[in-house]
Amino acid sequence: MSDIVKINLSGATGFFSKEQSGLFLEEAEKARNILINSEGRGNDFLGWVRLPSSIGRGDIDSYKKIAREWRQIAEVVVVIGIGGSYLGAKAAKEALTHSFKHLKREEGYPELIFAGQNLSGEYMAELLDILKERRFAVIVISKSGTTTEPAVAFRIIKELMESRYTKEEVARRIVAVTDSSKGALKEVADKEGYRCFVIPDDIGGRFSVLTPVGLFPLACGGFDVDSLVRGAADTEAQLLDNTKNNPAVMYAAIRNLLYSQGKKIELLVNYTPKLTYFSEWWKQLFGESEGKEGKGIFPGSVNFTSDLHSMGQYIQEGERSLFETVLNVEKAAREISVPCDEQNLDGLNFLAGKDVEECNEMARVGTAIAHQDGGVPNLVISIPVLNPYYLGALFYFFEFSCGVSAYILGVNPFDQPGVEDYKRNMFALLGKPGYEELAKKLKEKI
User: Fold this and answer.
1) CB within 10 Å: which end of the chain, N or C, has fewer?
2) Domain of 125?
3) Annotated catalytic, 309?
4) Would 445 be classed as within a structural domain?
5) Is the full-model pTM beyond 0.85?
């Protein structure tokens, strides 16, 4: 079987020698073995490695059962979570949804909307404006239940729900995705009678898209989670197979080789707007996994061709500290051709009859050549089409690559100690009991 996710390194090979790539590929193979044999740092958080193939029919059926129920009683499902607790579902929703669904009048599954991913009062007020006019249900996702952003959002939305529905109906409309036995959210769920799905103890948030964290919301939105899981499971089988030319191992090796040469920034590039939020998911995955101990490639993203008219100048001629990884969808789902115009005032009749996606592809090829000539290495990661199966494959491909890459770098891919710093400062400035001394020190800096 050919690779489900393919990698093309030809746009980068001019920036290093064959001997250099050979050395880093050897290191990547060692890191891959450390990952799959659970021998590295953070190895108690490797439940995601063999997760796709272990997801049972019963798991998916349980998600779909509630999805069918809510389809009858809710127009909107609010997904409350932050970081890995929402980015995977958001990325999949955006990738698999008609770009203008919000303007299409059609019956179907509830619309997925998101809360708890920020502390904007305006955002929350505007969300309440909508919820007051809609029948809604809630998925609240948090292992602890005490993360500030989702906890604040849940308080506010739960208050609205309790003002509209009976206690029994509230319990029917809220599902918690949380720890199996402990934590504030689990305690509330047990007390109020909410149904629960479990976040596995051995899977961290940014690797959780194929757990109930991602799959349950997507099922509620009517997305094909069976195909998503199957794509991830098939990719798991290929990447765990001990063969040469493993695309995830090659990607991890070359990005670290480029990093060793001073390429400190990686731009994930897409040529379809549907992948914008996939880039956001990818940025958390790599940024939080590798950015520690004074190390790590900075993960950024651009949307082409749009950003060629804003960031293109810097990429072409700015500081040579970056490389690009292009997400390439080989065939678009829809075709539309450029019409002929008799007046031809814009001078574009040479494009008449061509598919717009052909123009997009030539922009991709032309940009890659220009950027390589300008000193920017270019990796290409391709899938045949953008659908649930190949999206699931991409999710797993990058998770696996990230684990390998972080072990090459020599860091623990599965912790995030730096994230706690802002939280401590925020709690102190908001007057949380026990933080008085820190608050005093911080106020002296303001």
Assistant:
1) C
2) 52-225
3) yes
4) no
5) yes
